[in-house]
Amino acid sequence: MERKIDGELAVVLSSVSIACKRIASLVQKAGISGMTGAAGAVNVQGEDQKKLDVVSNEIFCEVLRTSGRTGVIASEEEDTPVAVEETYNGNYVVVFDPLDGSSNIDAAVSTGSIFGVYSSDQSCVPDWGADDEGVVQEKCITNVCQPGNNLLAAGYCMYSSSCILMLTVGHGVYGFTLDPSIGEFVLSHEDVKIPEKGKIYSFNEGNYVNWEPGLKEYMDALKKGGHTEDGKPYSARYIGSLVGDFHRTMLYGGIYGYPGDAKNANGKLRLLYECAPMSFIAEQAGGMGSTGRGRVLDIRPEEVHQRVPFYTGSREEVQYLESFLQEA
Ligand code: AHG
Ligand code: MN
Ligand code: MN
Ligand code: MN
To answer: What angle do CA 229, 231, 234 make, to 5 degrees?
Structure first.
């Protein structure tokens, strides 16, 4: 798909980077600014929202609204897509997870933001006359629920020992590290490529008992050295933040997975604003984004918060995992 990259998109991406800087600042001082702990509300996912989930979402909505280029957004923290323009003229749809791994906030473990940008089919015009202002018509849902193949841009910002914004506009993946002394993102990772193989797996093995047999066989093979020339087992690394686990996988290689299981057939991660943007980034870096039985970017979401099983990382590692599931 030939992606149109123009100045208008740059305005959207610039506004996203401002949101990331603002969130990074709040995360850094969460413990001394009363920004830890729960917000006291439950989101559409059924999760207890953290205070920073809510504030990060408000920041993204505000910067996208003031960008003047965004028509509709979909967020993990919004029940339905929201029109962010009073006079709707936005050229873009922006999907985002404003704070990923938010359960880690109180322990100051890495968190992040994830975003994706689509062009808008302009069919979606909010019905401002409706009682519930900003009510988004059905077609706005369609406008938002696009397959990842349509993504014009995707990225994540990791709030960790350093703040790193990773971005692709369809021509490779580039990383920018925030220099706090000047408040600017500085190029630090050029044309990132995921190592073809990697001996690290990143799964929540607490769910092992509920996994399908093929997946258990796969995990047992990794742990018994069944997939290395020297017969050594893989190492496990899992911090419970997709952004942190994904970023390590991007740089060191290996595989991250959040499988479906007996309790949650589609797993936990959301297709539209977690798995599709991360898959676009992974593929642009030479890796893969898979449901275990197919390519994530090919899936058109049926609803905004749809979940899918998700495996991503080194091409060879994801293909090895798929070989255990496709047999099933
Ligand atoms: P979020 O904080 O945006 O709701 O996402 C949390 C996700 C993801 O970041 C992480 O990999 C996964 O949940 C961890 O889930 P478990 O605690 O079930 O392992
Ligand atoms: Mn959440
Ligand atoms: Mn998340
Ligand atoms: Mn989140």
So the answer is: 100
